[in-house]
Amino acid sequence: MPELVSVEAVTRRFPLDHNVVNALDHVSFHVAQGEFLAIAGPSGSGKSTLLNLIGCIDKPTSGRILIDGVDTSKLNSSRLTALRREKIGFVFQTFNLIPVFTAAENVEFPLLVQGVAAKERRERVAAALESVGLSARANHRPDLLSGGERQRVAVARAIVHRPALVLADEPTANLDTRNATQLIDLMHDLNRTLGLTFIFSTHDQRLLEHTDRIVWLTDGQVVSDTLTSEVIPANIPLEGASHGQVLAARI
Amino acid sequence: MGKFLLLAFRNVFRNRRRTVMTLMMVGGGVAGLLLVGGFFARMFWGLRESTINDGLGHLQIFTAEHFNREEKHVLDTGIDNWRQVAASISTGGHVRGVAPRIEFNGMLSNGVKSGVFMGSAVDPAAEQTLGFTARLASGRDLDSKPGGEIEALVGAGVARSMNVKPGDGLTILAVTSDGALNGIDVQVVGVVNTGFKEMDDRYLRITLPSAQRLLQSDRVTNLVVGLDNTDNTDLVAAQLAPRLQGLPQQLVLKKWIDLAAYYKQVRSLFSTIFVFLGIIVFFMVLMSSVNTLLMAMFERTREIGTMLAMGTPRSWIMALFVLEATLLGVLGAVAGVVAGNLLGVILNHAGIHLPPPPGTTSPMNFRVMHVPSLMIGSSILVIVSLALASILPAIRASRLQIAEALAHV
Question: How many contiguous H segments (helices) and E segments (strands) does chain A have?
Fold first, then answer.
């Protein structure tokens, strides 16, 4: 499959008081179109920072990231905005829906920003909501939806403009097991049926069980990049576990 | 655009308590301006109409010389053929009548004490036709066809000073048009209260024939033209000007506003006060709204970060905040216009009386006019104020670092 994302020797440092923290340290890996990839690791390992950099909402201190062959470090602010608008969909841990919009209006927003005509917007919103099983809840505001429904609306919003890449930051962190499982199945279905590329950060073992590939980060460095076929035992808590412990558990 | 407007509108009502407080502040500012401005407008209107109806008229005709040189003798620059001119003017559209006047001054005496007067001579019938009735404190107005006695009206100050009342006699002395001194005995038939103490202390009015006999002249100082409506002044002035051309004497037409110095002074003073009030309201709305809008911006930091992450142009975020503030301004202005007009109606029916203004002796009714231009102006003022207040929050919102905004708690 053609390459969609290329992370090349990316380093991200943050100033903290009088020190500098290395959130990411020479991270490199490549993602092909249609992959379903997890970035895993304990808290503070740099998962969210890496997703922010791939999503063009932060800039690396050094190194470069290519999205669909475009070197994002060479793009100015407005071009980065256009790149995010056209090629990337976001799913956030806290859903981040616009509270004054209905589910349908939230899903419609990326199309609105893209300037899609009203008729086409309506059709695509209806299709996106149907694909996440929320057609009946289209006119409900987020405060009237359950956590699982909100996250499914967020997924519909992330895919409605047909992006090449969907980035999800800890998408199941605020969901109970049932809703988390439904969301994982949904994302996997979308990955398979639409060929959408998913990259998500997680330390949720339920999600890792369904992942094709895991990039494991520890202290801002890639310690493994593994294609998975085995299922991780459910009794191993990943949060706080070392890479070695998880690998051992998998074996 | 429709969805964008919808988003802005719903955001306005996201925090209802804060929105209501802001609307009360903005609406209160507009209502306050409407009440003060409406009161001033009613005052201007009342002063204008009283100035005109107290004898100034809507238009006045003088000889050009009247403004070009000082008179050597009384009526030196007066109008000769005033009857012909008055007849010509009377036929004009919207003209209710023409009243000849003589302005003169001299001395008056009760036999014991004397004083100066500023006199005017009028045709009582013409004055009554135009509705120029004297404000009588006692007695009656001048009779157009008096009997043997020469009738006179005096101001309340003159009556007090000369110790006269209706029915008493006075002698008035004036310099004739030839420069000689002449005198006549008059009978006081009424005492006038003009509302202005300085005027009441010098006021004397007699009939036109009496004054012409006193001054030994057939001329008049000016012709006062009364119209059916003050709003027709400019129209009639334009229509009448050609009729004054080609006459033996060069005549000029003056509008009431050109002659109402006191009215212009009052209007200028109170207009300045109103502008000052408007500036205070503008800054009051501006400063308090900046704080409110900044709070709204901070509360929505993560949401703004989400919108920016989804590729929303930063200019849209800025426009959204300005649009929300403008909507808030429009709603506040509507609330203020409604509240201001309602309060105005209530106050108009309350029958409130204010103390006499400086220089006058009559109490003033508190009345508020409903002025459309004032409603539009006040509304624009607060809308612009709110739009300006939103610029700082809008800039801050549009410049948020997306990653930091998404991590905002």
Answer: 8, 10
